[in-house]
Amino acid sequence: MAMHDGHRERLRNRFIEEGLDSFEIHNVLELALFYAIPRKDTNEIAHRLLARFGSLSAVLEAPVQELMQVEGISKNSAVFLSLIPALCRRYYEDRCSGKCITSVEEAGEYFKPKFIGRTDEVIFFLALDGKGRVLNCEIVSEGVVNEVNVNVRKLVEISMRYKATSAILAHHHPNGNALPSEADIETTWMVRHALEFVGVKLTDHIIVADDDFISLRESRQYKYLFESAPEQKD
User: Fold this and answer.
1) DSSP per position, the chain
2) What is the pTM of this model?
3) 211 with 174: CB under 8 angstroms?
4) Angle at Cα 34 formed by Cα 29 and Cα 35, nearest 5°?
5) How far is residue 189's CA from residue 116's CA, in Å, rounded to a whole number?
């Protein structure tokens, strides 16, 4: 046990001095597991996790029940691993609280962290005031890919509750392809017209995929969705 204690202390000191950038992936996982598994060789467990799931991100995104199937992983340590991406999201959200969104780039950077570790498709609705200040941002729909439906009435209620003057939709494609689907286009069209009835302007629909995003408003092919008098395309 003393040998393991010495190794743990060396790895912790290395992190303090160097950060994680120079760590091998299995060492990153090994270090994290120190705080969930106090009396076992977490190096071996880290290797087993990576062999089972293939990558650090896949380990952290794996369901708790699947993590528990790996030798050495208890419910406690499985929950701990699943907590990491959720904690990252909350960290970034907290840093972005109170921000103003005045450009496509700012909108994309605001939304990207909200999808960290999410394997099911979710839709966010961002309510803004006249100066682009964030009034509210929340998940309005979630489900598996291609099965997400938006409750338009809920979006109208949120807009009125926070006295929004504009809004942005955002969702992600877990498959890594940011190109919009027909359902994405139809949703944008439907939401834009519903919000118009309460004097709220839908200014964009952001689609995030991995570490990239596209803006429908900035895409020449879909800009018509946000124009004042768009014409329905065939």
Assistant:
1) -HHHHHHHHHHHHHHHHH-STTS-HHHHHHHHHTTT-TTS-HHHHHHHHHHHHSSHHHHHHS-HHHHTTSTT--HHHHHHHHHHHHHHHHHHHHHHTT-B--SHHHHHHHHGGGGTT--SEEEEEEEE-TT-BEEEEEEEEEESTT-----HHHHHHHHHHTT-SEEEEEEE-TTS--PPPHHHHHHHHHHHHHHHTTT-EEEEEEEEETTEEEETTTSTTTGGGGSSS-----
2) 0.69
3) no
4) 110
5) 27
Confidence (pLDDT) at 2: 46
Written as six digits, the tokens of 223 are: 């800009």
Segments of the chain scoring below 50 in pLDDT: 1-3, 145-147, 229-234
What are 110's two structure tokens? 């605001």
What pLDDT is stored for residue 199 in this prediction?
A: 95
The average confidence (pLDDT) of the chain is 88
